[in-house]
Amino acid sequence: xxxxxxxxxxxxxxxxxxxxxxxxxxxxxxxxxxxxxxxxxxxxxxxxxxxxxxxxxxxxxxxxxxxxxxxxxxxxxxxxxxxxxxxxxxxxxxxxxxxxxxxxxxxxxxxxxxxxxxxxxxxxxxxxxxxxxxxxxxxxxxxxxxxxxxxxxxxxxxxxxxxxxxxxxxxxxxxxxxxxxxxxxxxxxxxxxxxxxxxxxxxxxxxxxxxxxxxxxxxxxxxxxxxxxxxxxxxxxxxxxxxxxxxxxxxxxxxxxxxxxxxxxxxxxxxxxxxxxxxxxxxxxxxxxxxxxxxxxxxxxxxxxxxxxxxxxxxxxxxxxxxxxxxxxxxxx
Length: 333
What we know:
single chain, disordered C terminus, mainly alpha
């Protein structure tokens, strides 16, 4: 709604106006050494993004001081008897399956309102976001509270969004940004002789894929359940709870039981399942397109995809057609 948009714009503007130039903060002798190292890493990641041909522009040239809390707070909602997220439409982003708030109290109030409507609701925190190039995204210290390879990948992920965004295709955009940012993170680490860090990240991704398979299997079984015509809506909702519990108690992969214990125990519902699969990307179609195109730099891949999308009905078709079309004229890239 207009009220929601104006409220979030007002709160973001207040935060945005507190920003400090990155270079000024790095020159501050009172800056804690650990924070200095994190900001220097961000500068290095930005330089690498520019080298890779991403649209860096004026992104992350400012820092929000004392910003160790989440960047924002999110809420998603789904129908309790079918796998369908509610969506909201915004002028620049198109249709998106979530709402974000700069105050946790506002997010919680909206979540309570959605639950009162009988919907499945999932609440989360946001570690970073992109304005898609509409303004100079600032750095939050909360974005940097992670291992160095993860910090680099997060910054690159957000800059992929700034470089390519297919309006209304959130799943595609997130999958694309995750794949391309990981390709860049791999080359970033290997070019610096940090192969061991890449191996650790690769192992983490392997276990993430195991978790994704578990979640997709649950999603598939729920799809079958909701398609049944021989039981009532209330029975479907009851059987949903039983099915989720069986996946948590009996079908969770032993190999990742320790690392993903909190994920296993979370209160899963349609909203959290759909929301989580949104951010657990399917890499294969992007890998095929990348390997076929063999781009020297990530920016070239994104420019080619943008040109291909213009010739297709949507981003997915544009990706599929990348290697089927005749070489794209340079003026289109």
